[in-house]
Amino acid sequence: MRKVGMWLGVLLLTLLAAANASAQRRVTGRVASTSGEPLQSAHINVQGTTINTYSAEDGRYTLVNVPAGAQVLVVRRIGYRRQLVTLSATADAIDIRLEKDVLELERQVITGTTTSISSINAANARARSPAT
């Protein structure tokens, strides 16, 4: 009787895992400008989750483990306006067109670091070395 209970538990866990896996989907598509030019390095994120990706050179992207049901994709790229795209509950592919934003080109943050350089010549080296 104990073995039957164990097998029923394993079967229940397997069914729950399968149901959870079927509740997720893979979404693919292409990001392009309004003129149809593919956009590389556009950031695509499922709103409210940590599921995200970047578009490739040809503008194509793939999101994995997207939750079932209607979702909102947040699409961003420097020089283009951020766009919220509604993904229907049954969609597994969606192409996105981004509009140029001229003002965003000027709003880039550039950070850098500095390093310290010092030089020692022969006179300084003799003065600093311990007496021998």
Question: Could you describe the 3D structure shown?
Answer:
- With 132 residues, the chain is α+β, with helices and mostly antiparallel strands.
- The chain has a domain at 26-108: Carboxypeptidase-like, regulatory domain (Immunoglobulin-like), CATH 2.60.40.
- The protein is built from two helices and seven strands, in the order H-E-E-E-E-E-E-E-H.
- Strands 3-2-5-6 form a four-stranded antiparallel sheet, with no helix packed on it.
- Strand 5 and strand 6 form a beta hairpin.
- The longest helix is centred in the N-terminal third of the chain and has 21 residues, at 2-22.
- The chain starts with a helix and ends with a helix.
What brief labels describe this structure?
four-stranded antiparallel β-sheet; three-stranded mixed β-sheet; 2 helices; 132 residues; alpha+beta; Immunoglobulin-like; 7 strands
Q: Give the end-to-end Cα distance, rounded to a whole number of Å.
A: 88 Å
| Name given to the CATH architecture of the domain at 26-108 | Sandwich
**SSE series:** HEEEEEEEH
Helix content: 10-25%
Poorly predicted regions: 17-21
CA-based gyration radius: 27 Å
CATH class of the domain at 26-108 equals: Mainly Beta
The CATH homologous superfamily of the domain at 26-108 is called Carboxypeptidase-like, regulatory domain
Instruction: Count helical runs.
Output: 2
CATH topology of the domain at 26-108: Immunoglobulin-like
- Please tell me what the overall shape is: flat
The amount of beta strand, in percent, is 25-35%
The secondary-structure class comes to alpha+beta
